[in-house]
Amino acid sequence: MSTRSRRGRASAAQAGARGSAPVFAALGDPTRLRVVDRLSTGGPASIAVLTSGSGVTRQAVAKHLRVLADAGLVRGSRQGRESVWELETRQLAEARRYLDAVVRRADYRRWAVGGGRYELQ
After folding, report:
1. CA–CA separation, 48 and 52 (whole Å)
2. What are the angstrom distances between the C-alpha of 60 and each of 24, 54, 92?
3. Main-chain phi, psi angles of 82, to 5 degrees
4. How far apart are CA 112 and CA 119, in angstroms?
5. Of 117 and 31, which is predicted with more confidence?
6. How many helices (H) and strands (E) does the chain have?
7. Which residues contact 21 (CB under 8 A, 6 or more apart)?
């Protein structure tokens, strides 16, 4: 493999890491993960719906939604007097592609180091 090819892959990996870092940071909180899960299974929801049965205050959920929105994971819109939030999957898909590439590289390295034999760890 040429040095130029490796450099190109490294810069693509770095770009993927930079682009995905805000997503991973936002998802690094259990409450935000639960909010994302609720939006993925239940569809768009208001803060009242998202707090229902969660034991988390509306103010806390609103704060978490702002963090998720800053990372491009959710989008809010006004419907009457309420804000309704929905999951935006584009950033999640980008982060998944980045992680898939990391796994492929690690798997290839394990295969190459194992002399062409793939050994599960």
Report:
1. 6
2. 19, 11, 22
3. -110, 155
4. 10
5. 31
6. 5, 3
7. none
- Per domain, the residue ranges of the chain are 3-113
For the range 100-106, what are the long-range contacts, defined as Cβ-Cβ under 8 Å and sequence gap of 24 or more?
Answer: 101/13, 101/16, 102/13, 105/13
For residue 66, give the amino acid letter: R
Classify domain 3-113 by CATH number. Answer: 1.10.10.10
**Tens digits of per-residue pLDDT, 85-101?**
999 999 999 999 999 98
What are 54's two structure tokens?
Answer: 């969660």
Contact criterion met (CB below 8 Å) for 90 and 72:
yes
SS3 string of 45-100?
Answer: EEHHHHHCCCCCCHHHHHHHHHHHHHCCCEEEEEECCEEEEEECCHHHHHHHHHHH
